[in-house]
Each structure stands twice: as structure tokens, then as C-alpha cells.
Design goal:
The complex is a heterodimer of chains A (386) and B (195). Chain A is an alpha+beta fold. Chain A has helices at 3-14, 20-32, 35-45, 57-68, 94-105, 306-309, 324-335, 359-367; strands spanning 91-92, 120-126, 132-136, 142-147, 150-155, 158-163, 174-179, 183-188, 194-197, 201-206, 214-225, 235-239, 243-247, 251-256, 262-269, 272-276, 281-285, 289-294, 299-303, 316-323, 338-341, 348-354, 372-377, 380-385. Chain A is globular and about 85 Å long. Chain B contains eight helices and no strands. Chain B starts with a helix and ends in an 11-residue tail after the last helix. Classes of the chains: A alpha+beta (386), B mainly alpha (195).
Chain lengths: 386, 195
């Protein structure tokens, strides 16, 4: 295309006056030309056009805040637990303390090329009719579906189910919300129960609960804040045929990742009954307790640090005397990477890190312990203990 | 002369991380960049994205500002580069959406479309199909049927603002999906989507 023709088309594009044929001619030319050519074309116009469009004040300020925001959000690492060194364990705590001082005094850095951003709000919703909707967090209100008497929408980064209270009872239809690796999502069930889903997790639930019980099925890790209902209408969480948790109104976390080897129910508030269908054992736990069901159905209860267990929901990783495999399984899920181990790992680590940091930053902090060395190649992580 | 000295002083402050000085410069030039981006893309959220990207580049490399003679020429060089990438991406998106529109009219797609674009077409179609029904409707009416936002608002009986928000969310979602897919399909050398 000769230059005059290109300039003419560009002018028409600016005025939105291209015919369909001209537009196709123009776009193909723009797409196929070299970067240098495109840049010099832009140079012809960039300082010559009148300033006719203006950013609104609120938008302008929002954009400005995005511009000056530190490259990695939530750079506040903190150290919150006390050191209780068990004699039999080698604990590499020091790294986190150093990290805290080091990063609070350092300037912002630009993320390196080979790096992986943290996970974010992502989910896939499968409706009763089999249709699939990809969801992303949005503070705006987006209508996902409105069928029969159930309204589904995403608002304030949450998936919301709302039932018309006047609706007739009808056949129960199951929906499923799945979170991929590198994702997390929040939802509100039709009864008002709040649910947080971690990466690589899912929940299956009816779009309206029947009159006698509220039953959902989960995989992965899910935190619940169950709404108390008038009358006996128990809330039941099932993980395959491995675990059943019966509640009335309470807050608790269920970790049922297959590769964690057991189902761990941790109670924050209220009271729940944990049932192991396999061994037919059951136990009622109180706040601060964790019930563990192993692969062969054994049920045991112990006291735990609740803040550590539900740290993920609050945007943090918290580890206490964790071995490297335990840490890396979380990394795999949140950053969608795979870890290759080499050598033996004997040490234990503790500390807290924001889930909003890039993977490289996460590694830097752990490397400061002086005990570990990380490598990243595409989406494969190598880790060595020194 | 005083003007120039002022600017030098301002740039020095910015180079040291002074956000107030940076805000002044931003206030002075933001609409120039935004306006140009609007001429290029005719889409407000893309223009916002371009504006943001240009100033992020300036802010993250602010230590360079001490050696800048004229801020305006420096700004325009950065804006030109950012705008050029966006224009290329915009062109490709429009080409694909036009093809999708044509395909939906004729039953069989013409064989001379290159494999690369064919694959991209498929991914794009998939991305649109995965949108929620409302977003999908608005996206198709705007990008494929080429209706004006006002016409869409009237047709669906929703506000103009809602149309804009839907379009923004739908476009972001489509771009993200296409971007992710291409990330996976490294066979496609279309790094334009990867930025």
C-alpha cells in the first residue's frame, strides 16, 4: 500500500468513516506491517490531533492509583507466630525475619521476565442444563442467568444465588462451581451461606435447597460460614464417600485435597459433627479443633492454630513447622506450576507471606532462610535443600 | 525558560519517587494520551488501558527522567510504542471478529484463511460461547453485528452505562481466554496476545 493511501485510511479510521471494505484493507495493512512502520505511522498523528476526549475525574484518579501502585501488591510480609522449637525438628525460621526487614526497606522492583503472577479470581460455573460459564471477579454486578425463579449473578467478586421467596417447590437441580489451579472464588449459596473456594477445588450445590436439609459436595479446600436457619435444617458437606460434616450454623474450613492424604475439618466457630462413613466413626468438635479422616477412614481430633489453617482465605500463606513438600503443594495450586524435587528434605519452615506476590518473590523470601535454592523453567519449579 | 527549569525540577522530583510531582505531570498530559488512544481504538476502556500503560512505563523507569531533555517528546515516544502494540492487537481482533461475522452468514469458511488465523477463530468463538448469556448478547451485537451502543441499549432495554460495562467485561473475558489459550498453544507465534 502506498503511503498516501495509508494516511488517508488512517484519517478515515480516526473519524470512524471507513467503509466495510476500506476497514478490512486498513486493518490487514496495520496488522501485517512491521513495528517500525506502524510506529512511524503513529508518529504522523500523535501530536497533531486535538485533545477532544477527556478522562472523567474519578476514572483519572483510579488510573493514577493503578500507575503508582507497587508492582507487587500487598508487600507486607509479617511474622506472627511465636517460635516453639521442638527439639527433634530443625527449624529454619530465620529467613522470614530477615525477609521482613529486607523488603520493608527496599525499593520497588520490576518483576523479572521468567516469573509467574499469583492466582486470582477465576471459576467455571456449570449450570443444571450443562451450560458452562467462565467467571471472573468483578465489583460490578453481572447477571449470569435468570431462569425459573433463581437469579445468578456476580457482584463484589462473589457469585450470588438468589431465590424468589414466592417460588413453588420443585425438582432439585445441581450446579457446580469449579476453581482451576491459580484461582479462587467466593460465593453465596441460596440460603445465604458464604463459601470461599481455594485453587483446584469445587462445590456442587442445588440452585435451591429442599425443605429438609442443605447438602453440598466438595473437593479441594473450602471455607464455610453457614447461615443459621430457623427450625432443623442441617447443613451437610460431603467429600465423596470419605467424609461428611453436619452443621447448624458455624464457620469452618475443609481441606480435602487428594494429594494431602487426608480430609481435615477445622472449626472456627460453632459446632460440627464430622463423620467418617468408611469406619462409621464420628466426632463432634469445638472451635480450635481439627478432625482428620485418613484414607482408610480413621478419625482423630487435635488442637490447631486456626489462623494458620484459614490463612488462604485471608490472602496469606502461613506455615508453621511445615516441610518443603507441604509448602510446595500450595505453591503448585496457587501459581499453577509443577514442582520437581531432588535430593532429600529434612528441614521444616515457618512464616507468613502474602498470596499476592509473584512467584519469584516467594522464592526470594524462602531462599533467605539460607537453606533452599529454587529454579523456575516455564512452569516447572525445582527446589533443593542445601 | 522558567517553564523549562520548572519541568527539570519536576522531573528530578519524580525520578526520586515524588508522587505529587508525578501527579502534576499526569494531570497535564493524561488527556492528550487518552484522546489519541480514543482516536485509535474508539473504545473508552481500551483508551484507559493505553493511558495507564504509558504512565506505568514512565513511573517504573522514573530514574531515567533525570537525563530527559523534553518530557513531552519522551512521553510521545513511549506513547507511540504502547499505542503501536495496541493498534496491532486491535487490528487482529477486528479482523477475527469480522471473519466470525462473515462465517456466521456463509456456511463454509473460505479455505485461504491461514491455519494460524483459523485456530484463533476457533478459540475466539469458544471464548464468546463461554460468556454469560447477557454479556454474549451485547458482545455479539457490538462486535459482530456492529450495532452502536445506543442501539444495543434500546434493543435490550438496558441503560447505555450497562451496555458499556457489559462490553468491557465481555471484552476482557474474551481477551483473557484467548490469551490463556494461546499461552498454552505455543505453536501459535502470536505473541501479540501475550503481553
Amino acid at each position: 500500500m502506498n503511503k498516501d493511501r495509508l494516511l488517508e485510511l488512517f484519517k478515515l479510521h480516526i473519524q470512524e468513516k471507513l467503509s466495510k471494505k476500506e476497514e478490512s484493507e486498513f486493518l490487514n495493512e496495520i496488522y501485517s506491517m512491521s513495528d517500525e512502520q506502524r510506529e512511524s505511522l503513529i508518529d504522523e498523528f500523535i501530536d497533531k490531533l486535538p485533545v477532544e476526549h477527556h478522562l472523567g475525574k474519578a476514572d483519572a484518579e483510579k488510573i493514577f492509583r493503578n500507575i503508582v501502585r507497587p508492582v507487587t501488591k500487598g508487600r507486607t510480609f509479617f511474622v506472627r507466630f511465636s517460635i516453639s522449637v521442638a527439639a527433634s525438628l530443625v527449624i529454619a525460621f530465620s529467613g522470614f525475619y530477615i525477609a521482613d526487614k529486607y523488603y520493608n526497606s527496599s525499593e520497588d522492583t520490576i518483576s523479572v521476565v521468567n516469573d509467574i503472577a499469583p492466582g486470582g479470581e477465576k471459576a467455571i460455573l456449570t449450570l443444571a442444563d450443562g451450560s458452562v460459564v467462565r467467571l471472573e471477579g468483578s465489583s460490578d454486578s453481572i447477571l449470569v442467568s435468570k431462569k425459573n425463579d433463581v437469579t445468578i449473578q456476580v457482584k463484589d467478586n462473589k457469585l450470588l444465588y438468589k431465590k424468589d421467596p414466592k417460588a413453588q417447590a420443585r425438582e432439585i437441580k445441581y450446579n457446580m462451581l469449579s476453581i482451576p489451579r491459580g484461582g479462587e472464588f467466593q460465593m453465596v449459596l441460596p440460603d445465604g451461606t458464604n463459601v470461599w473456594l481455594n485453587a483446584e477445588s469445587s462445590i456442587k450445590f442445588p440452585d435451591e435447597f429442599p425443605s429438609d436439609e442443605r447438602r453440598v459436595m466438595i473437593t479441594g479446600e473450602v471455607y464455610f460460614e453457614v447461615t443459621k436457619m430457623s427450625g432443623e435444617k442441617p447443613f451437610i458437606v460431603e467429600f465423596k464417600d470419605k467424609a461428611r460434616i453436619e452443621v447448624l450454623g458455624t464457620r469452618f474450613n475443609v481441606n480435602a485435597y487428594e494429594n494431602e492424604g487426608s480430609v481435615r475439618t477445622t472449626l472456627v466457630e460453632g459446632s460440627v459433627k464430622v463423620v467418617s462413613p468408611l469406619s462409621k466413626n464420628s466426632s463432634v468438635i469445638s472451635p480450635g479443633q481439627q478432625a482428620t479422616i485418613t484414607g482408610d477412614g480413621l478419625l482423630s481430633v487435635k488442637e490447631v492454630d486456626v489462623d494458620e489453617v484459614i490463612a488462604w482465605k485471608n490472602g496469606k500463606f502461613v506455615f508453621d513447622k511445615a516441610n518443603i513438600q507441604t509448602i510446595m503443594r500450595q505453591i503448585e495450586r496457587w501459581y499453577n506450576v509443577d514442582v520437581v524435587y531432588s535430593g532429600t528434605y529434612t528441614k521444616h519452615y515457618g512464616g507468613a507471606i502474602s498470596r499476592k506476590v509473584n512467584l519469584s518473590r516467594f522464592f526470594e523470601i524462602l531462599e533467605l532462610s539460607g537453606e533452599l535454592k529454587f529454579g523456575l523453567n516455564d512452569s516447572t519449579v525445582t527446589v533443593q535443600e542445601k | 525558560m522558567i517553564q523549562e527549569e520548572n519541568e527539570k525540577q519536576q522531573l528530578l522530583l519524580i525520578s526520586k519517587g515524588n508522587q505529587i510531582a508525578f501527579h502534576e505531570i499526569y494531570e497535564k498530559y493524561k488527556d492528550k494520551i487518552y484522546s489519541f488512544a480514543m482516536y485509535l481504538t474508539h473504545t473508552d476502556f481500551l483508551a484507559e488501558e493505553i493511558t495507564q500503560e504509558v504512565f506505568i512505563k514512565i513511573w517504573t523507569t522514573r530514574s531515567n527522567l533525570t537525563s530527559v531533555e523534553s518530557f513531552k517528546s519522551y512521553l510521545l515516544v513511549i506513547a507511540r510504542n504502547v499505542a503501536s502494540n495496541h493498534l496491532k492487537r486491535y487490528a487482529l481482533e477486528r479482523i477475527i471478529l469480522t471473519k466470525l461475522a462473515d462465517n456466521s452468514n456463509t456456511t463454509e469458511n473460505d479455505s485461504d484463511i491461514q491455519d494460524e488465523q483459523n485456530a484463533l477463530l476457533k478459540i475466539h468463538e469458544e471464548a464468546i460461547r463461554l460468556l454469560s448469556p447477557q454479556l454474549q448478547k451485547v458482545y455479539i451485537l457490538h462486535h459482530i453485528k456492529r450495532l452502536k451502543n445506543k442501539e444495543i441499549a434500546d434493543m435490550l432495554d438496558i441503560s447505555l452505562y450497562t451496555v458499556k460495562e457489559y462490553l468491557k467485561n465481555a471484552s476482557k473475558s474474551v481477551r483473557k481466554y484467548v490469551g490463556d489459550k494461546i499461552n498454552i498453544m505455543i505453536v501459535l507465534a502470536l505473541n501479540i496476545y501475550l503481553n
